[in-house]
Amino acid sequence: MGRARHFQAATTVAASLTARLTVLIVICMVCWPAMAGTTVHKGSVGDWIKPVALPKADPQFDSQIKNGISNLLSDYQIRKRPGGLEVFDRYAYKIVDRTGLERGASINFEFDPATSEVTVNWIDIIRDGVVIQHLSDGEFDVFRRESDAEKGLFDGWLTAYLNINDVRVGDIVDYGKTTVRTPIIGTDLLFHSFAVAWDEPIALIRKRVTWPTVQPLNVRQVRTDIRPHVQSTGETTTYLWQSANPTPVKSQEYLPPDFLTYPSIEISSTSKWQDIVDTVLPYYRLDQELPADFAAKLDAIAAKYDAPEDRMIEAMRLVQDNIRYVSLSMGRGSYIPRSPTTVVASGFGDCKDKALLLASSLRRLGIHADVALTDLDEGLALATILPTIRAFDHVIVKVAIDSQTYWIDATNYLQGGRADNLIPPDYGFALPIVADKAGMEKIERKELYQPTTFVNEVFDFPKRKGEPLKLTVTTTYWGADADSMRYKLVSQSAARIADDYLKYYNRQYPGMKSLGPLVTNDSRDKNLVSVTESYDLSAGDLDADNLSKDFALKSDVGIRYLPEPDLLERSAPIWLGSPIFRRHRCTVRNLKAHFVGPEDNDDVITPYVAFKARWTSTSTEFQVDWFLKTLNDRIPAKSIGPYLKSLKKINDNSAWNYNFAYSDAEAN
């Protein structure tokens, strides 16, 4: 748990529950044998593919080779075909030492059997200039793996694996495959992005796109000046990008979602988001019939509530709380929602299903609502990325009441608040699915004017010798933190939560014992959740190891969640994430002396983070309040040094130790 045991991450429940619109390739945990018709084929390379000779690696980068593999070639070629794309992918590398055999003696890749047919064109080993062909004796095992099955997420992707026979140190492995892709939707759309430098050496990165001349490609360059060689031949135009022996890029952590790790190039066949909307619009009709029983519940809401804001909240809760989350994102399910009738009848749905159901419900209640596409983790990047249907992995709802806009994530569970204090999902930007004038819209954050987590610890020192110390902790959560805590309280047992809390205090004050179960209170409309804990520490444990003479008061305001990156060669900004505003108060009572705070207790105020400590005291009581608030969501690279210095000062001032056994009588 660490020190910040009360801290609740300011993220919505959707971040852990929501399906992807576009299927992600993941490290897999649950496996099934492949289904029929999912074989990896073998066949010759197409005549449209333009080969390139294997390049030579630049020896100046040899010291940066990782895992015993020297990358030689990444060649990716695309052309349009009726109903979709044909993609050729070639990768070649040299095994330079024994560790490279573990990584380089096998081939594995993932593909979607619903949209892709894969043909391996060759698998060659080049040893001392001699080519040894292994395509004929290589057989791929194909597995279906689902890493998030326990969360109700199923994408249907397959993993193909082949162990190559007789691979040795010094060998070059060279293989190529062709994939015919037939997208479920958007068959005439293209989007491809690629890095022109990796975090390890590579001799040549090559990208070649053949596309209809009447549909010129749009290109976005990010921190690179590499431009394509363009050649038109009648009906088609070929674009060729090449990056030879690029300098490896040092990977950096804590990056903003809209900051690409590597210098990159994006390619899109359209410059208009309306083209993306028009592709999915037919599947998000909001005039679909609702089941009679469900419609009756909506009519009951309309009869009970006149204000559209109240109707919105009640419909939101109806969908969030009663339709459980399951994502069957396989084939059509990756992009196309199920009908509201099907979703209600089954009792479950993914983000697409639940968003369509909620928007349709709101329309029935006389409220203007639209479904909107967004991204859970990289929504901020939607403001800059070229238009593509692949930019999204989540679906939410946009609601307009008079001049007010509300954003609702229907996959949230037990979300609190009414219209005036409803917390919008912190996804950055979203694309409403509307018939005309579609464009990316910003999801505005609500300014935090009060702490969203307030930890109030009251230590009652014993009045008489032999009595225990009493500790009462009341933690109040508001807004997004209340939503997170509310979900935690229903998704975990109260005993487990209480045990975790007790462990936290036992690490600070060995021997601490719980006096009873957690006491919780939830005001859902106000979106306030409180949790109260009660403990005691025996007189013997209080005196053991001079605990009372070196008693720690520690702030629990989420300091550990502030990033502390390596400053070495740092060139990118730091991402601070969703806004934080936390407060922690320690009150110590029944003291026998007058205690004060540190004389050099300076506030830490930067353009990015503010930290304050305030203390008051009487002859028998000492109290300290810590406050932490982030003032921006990122720190520019040039300001990271001062930020790290301020972070050190914050950490130094986040815990105070006192000899609470001291008494004024002893001094006199």
Automatic annotation (TrEMBL):
Q: Which residues cross the membrane?
A: 12-35
Q: Which InterPro entries match?
A: DUF3857, Papain-like_cys_pep_sf
**This protein's record includes keyword Transmembrane helix:** yes
Q: Which domain of life is it from?
A: Bacteria
Domain DUF3857: from-to ranges = 83-249
| Keywords associated with the record | Membrane, Transmembrane, Transmembrane helix
Known Pfam families for this protein? DUF3857
State the protein's name.
DUF3857 domain-containing protein
Q: Which organism is it from?
A: Mesorhizobium wenxiniae
